[in-house]
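Please go through this protein, sequence plus structure tokens, and consider how the sequence yields the tokens. Keep your notes short.
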Amino acid sequence: MNAAQAGDFLRALAAANPTPETELHYSDPFTLLVAVVLSAQTTDAAVNKATATLFQAAPTPAAMAALGEEGIAPHIRRIGLWQAKARNVAALARQLLEKHGGAVPADRAALEALPGVGRKTANVVLNVAFGENTMAVDTHIFRLGNRTGIAPGKTPREVEAALVRKTPPEMLRDAHHWLILHGRYVCKARMPECWRCPPVAHCNYRDKVLVPPAG
């Protein structure tokens, strides 16, 4: 898929969803950062249930650090990898206090130095909290990039680079949300629902499912 076709693909998604937003619940950069760390291999809906009580108990880095791993754990036991995530959230809260005055840094290297924060998480925080034109590639976007041909790649970093290269600059900030929501609800892993896909005419997937299954 060339850049012109990729632009048409994204414009079709934009027309169907003009104001895309993350489905994670958050109130500031810190709660966003924690929510994204907790979302690894877990649905946003499950994370939102966990953070509903967690953020009541600890809405700031100081409160989260004081809560500690043992205090965080009961709030997140129902989500995947909860033990490691409890350790990471407690540790990142402490590091924010010790190294950044309790503020979430608007810097990729500083974010990725925090426990539990990789490139994808940093990209989400930079995009959503700080308005940067980053492209966070999760499993949905990785699948969609390869399936549709908009950004084929063997690694998330390759898909990210292709998407950044092909996305019209004015669309780059929102493109992450358009793509992740499309991959989550329409271009699904087991069977893409091509019959209700806004950019189906611009997609290079050869095995399109244009008729919904009976029943």
Q: What stands out?
A: The chain has ten helices and no strands.
